[in-house]
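Q: what does this look like with manganese (II) ion bound?
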Amino acid sequence: MHYVISDIHGNLRRFHSILEQIHLQPEDHLYVLGDISDRHPHGMEILQELRDMPNCSILLGNHEYMMLDALGRPYQNAEKWDGREKAKRMAHWYRNGGAVTHQAWQKLPKEKREDVLDFLQSLPVSMDVEVSGHHFEMVHAAPPELYQPDSVVWKDLPYFCVWNRDALFQVPPPEDKVILFGHTPTRHFQDADPLCIWEGHNLLGIDCGSGYPDPPVPGHMKGRLGCIRLEDMQTWYSQEALEPTPEPEPEAEAEKEMETATMATVESPTAAPPVQEKEHWFTRILKHLPGRKKPEDPKN
Ligand SMILES: [Mn+2]
């Protein structure tokens, strides 16, 4: 059996809640679509646990990408930053919940620290798997075949694959495969079950918001960890202290994960989040989802 989870975001409790429910067997395989760490404090432990599993495959997420960038080991051939630029990369990681991961990483013995970075460097940005005659492509955010090399915003292919939220919705949906992705919490795609796996036409969004507070905090978005089995599309969710409610939560948190296009305008770690004329990312996505949730005014 093939199980897929994504965006654990350092939440060991939610991760173990899923493992307890699916009873992974040696002949099963677990796929993790990136963003193992940041926001919650146990990313390094979860990464170690996943690495110790012989039947687990991991993709690079934008949070692993940010970690490598901030720690001076940019993913593959990405541009290496130094001086002031390096400080900006660290600040960017911290703004996206990286401080807890940085602290945990710093507590590791030196050789272990390097080993973690070597491992993250080795992660792919996409995987293809055939299950019961069906073709599945797994990515953290966007599939590599949609990358346009002349793009000025997306500086290289890995960067695009771990960050882009739009490309999947700007082309006709795939007919010959199912694309599984994480990165954008599914509450942004749907009204009825905002904490559930989202199913589009041959698209499966599986980030159910494990990065959000645990237990929920008033005024913040709620989340949980989702898991899907590819043989029969059965789903599981981490057990939560409070029942999820279908009402949309205040949108303040949605601004936290800033897109790369806004990064260049940030001047220092203490600078206020950049104000841009462009649309908010999930307003853009919702325009491509006819019949689903209408764009909301984030102020409401
Ligand atoms: Mn992500």
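Residues 2-287 form a domain with the Purple Acid Phosphatase; chain A, domain 2 fold (CATH 3.60.21.10). DSSP finds nine helices and ten strands in the chain.
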